[in-house]
Amino acid sequence: MTDKQLEKYMRGTYLGVVKGNYDTYCRLNSKEINNFVQNAGKYADLVIIKLRSNEIMFDTKGQFIHQILPELSETARTSYEGQKIINQIASKLNEMIDDSIEEKPIKKVERFIKEAFGQEMIENDIVDSLKESEQNVSFQGHIF
């Protein structure tokens, strides 16, 4: 794939969904994918689907990319051409991550999290911080 073909492939509209639940989705452009994965990925494994072709671009394990083009057959995946395309997409995704490091979720990602997981992002962050503080409790003043 040439650089021009890769740019064209990466442009467009995507749908971000929770793996296995395609009822609730978040419409994304390529620059919003990282924000979606970093924020919604805290709560579930995700799938990013290219809207025009209905092709799964990648799936995640939490906030980390698990597999690029997971629908490729094993034969296509292990071929030189298949590996080359996967590596090109991975490289482009890394560039997009570097260009869009933003910790706070954008509005559409907040709405998706609320709809998909049934609660506000802030509530989850409070629960997460409470769990962390419980793990960091000091026992210095206690006699056992």
What can you tell me about this protein's structure?
The protein is built from six helices and five strands; from the N terminus they run H-E-E-H-E-E-E-H-H-H-H. It is an alpha+beta fold. It has one domain. It has a five-stranded antiparallel beta sheet with strand order 2-1-3-4-5, covered by helices on one side. Strand 1 (13-18) and strand 2 form a beta hairpin. The longest helix is centred in the middle third of the chain and has 20 residues, at 80-99. The N and C termini lie far apart (65 Å). Residues 133-144 have low confidence and may be disordered.
Summarize the structure.
With 144 residues, the protein is an alpha+beta fold. It has helices at residues 3-10, 33-40, 74-78, 80-99, 107-117, 121-135, and strands spanning 13-18, 21-29, 46-50, 55-61, 64-68. It is built from 6 helices and 5 strands.
List its traits:
6 helices, alpha+beta, 144 residues, five-stranded antiparallel β-sheet
Topology (elements, then pairings):
Elements lengths: L2 H8 L2 E6 L2 E9 L3 H8 L5 E5 L4 E7 L2 E5 L5 H5 L1 H20 L7 H11 L3 H15 L9
Antiparallel strand pairs: 1-2, 1-3, 3-4, 4-5
Helix pairs in contact: 2-5
